[in-house]
Amino acid sequence: MIILGIETSCDDTAISLVNEKGTVLSNVVSSQEVFHKNFGGIVPEIASRKHSELIGYAITETLKIAGKSLEDIDLISVTKGPGLVGSLIIGVETAKAISFALNKPLIGINHLEGHIYSLFLGGPKLSKIKNPFPLIILIVSGGHTELVLMENHLKYRVIGRTRDDAAGEAIDKFARFLGYGYPGGPLIEKLGINGNPEFHKFPHLTFKGSPYEFSFSGLKTAGIYFLEKNPAAVKNNLNDIAASFEKTVVDILTERTIRAAVDYKVKGIGVVGGVSANKRLRKTLTTEAPVEVFLPEKTFSTDNAAMIALAGYRHFERGEKDNLLLDVYSRLEIE
Amino acid sequence: MKILSINNAFQPSITAFSENEKIIFSITAYQKDDWPNNILYVTKTMFDSLGIAPKDIELVSVVYGPGSFTGTRVGVIEGKITSYALNIPIVPVNSLKFIAAHFKEEVHPILPAGKNEYFIAKFNNGERVEKDRIEKKEFLKEINGILVSPCEEIKDIISNLIIINPDPEVLISLTLKEYADGNIFKDPLSLNPLYLHAIDTIFKKYKNGRN
Ligand SMILES: [Zn+2]
User: Fold this and answer.
1) Residue B32, class by beta-carbon neighbours within 10 Å (0-12 exposed, 13-18 middle, 19+ buried)?
2) Which of B44, B54, B206 sits opposite A43 (nearest CB)?
3) In sequence order, what DSSP letters do the residues of A214-246 get, joined into one string?
4) CB contact under 8 A, A100 and B44
5) Residues A140 and A247 reside in one and the same domain
6) Which pTM value belongs to this model?
7) Each residue of B166-205: pLDDT tens digit?
8) Is residue A155 located within the same domain as residue A234?
């Protein structure tokens, strides 16, 4: 069985072909970063325009790499939300048009559920374990920070999320204040490699009664305040500041995730989303976690369509599909 | 020739299926704003009930703007991906030309283009006299001539406006005319909406927080 995955929830036009085992036949991510870079963030109208220009060519390229044609596809799986409506709509209408023209089944997938399935792509450790559940999954990116208890395939419970900014968003904004462009995460990581993470202690908040909740807006504000008040440190200790800020974010993520893993007596921890590629986070979590930590292949930690294709297959296998009235959702919960 | 024609650049949307200038079916509907529409759904439903297979389509035509940003883009994506998947050509139809094609007289077709701005052009007996452009509300009042639009709201600004109900037959005959004139995209993926608003003007609005 061949599944065509389509993912356009933000600024990447991503198309992939995956089989029912999670083997990735081809994976194309056409980044729009160059178009948004000058604006210091994503401009929704530009994202939507670029998706509509690129998507057909990205499909052609994906088919070419895998040596397949549209006729070979058995299922179309597309991100229906959460994300930018104007961006999602291009992916969904593309999926619907192929489904209409070639009479192929169609399914709409939650982007976050897609990230969870990045753990099962490309034959990593996790897909070889007979029953890895329950798992605690940390979804962490520029748009999301959530802790999910995964009891089985397609069975989830969100146990904690951010009250305000996502972890990656806080890092991006901190980087922007330092004069670095979008996205800021990789730049902060690069600066912090040789820095002293103990240089400055940024605030690390916990909420009474909700031990798995996150908040990064306070940290972001404190970070920017520190930069404003300490121009000398910014000049002389930039690497140390970056390392300290990054460490605080990583510590918050690690502390909540491990606590959830212990409380729910899980067999393993999965970390997915763009920030899961962060080396400090990978190292801290694997060192401190009492259970095994599973990570997606680096290519599949950031937004991609292979994860959407595999999640779509799991739902389709269970007898679910959508019709040509499939909608998009700017907000969508994992259920 | 069997043609699927789509308009989603302005309201109401149109889906029309024709064979040799004769309409097999057409559906005119008001769609939700900025949201996936039901064009492909109703087309599939009609096809199923009439025993038509999507593979029977030989040509797609789509109204490619100027018009509502999201609406136009959605219509173009539906049209171009359908024709890409079926490996058939696509014909773009200009929205202002489509509106003007309802009249033999010299007319100025108008469509809303965002805050206080309007897409406008001039046609005589369906032939273009002036190119598509964007004008401010104040300018519309200065125009001497017949102003036409499918958009009721514009009536609040200009009283001597003729409101039209877009006719699927006009869309089909215009499609055939464009096809005969060789206005065909053999690579449907290379067809993009006609925006008129350049990306840098959008960015300016975005930066000033007006968008
Ligand atoms: Zn994502």
Assistant:
1) exposed
2) B206
3) B--HHHHHHHHHHHHH-HHHHHH-HHHHHHHHH
4) yes
5) yes
6) 0.94
7) 999 999 999 999 999 999 999 999 999 999 876 555 555 5
8) yes
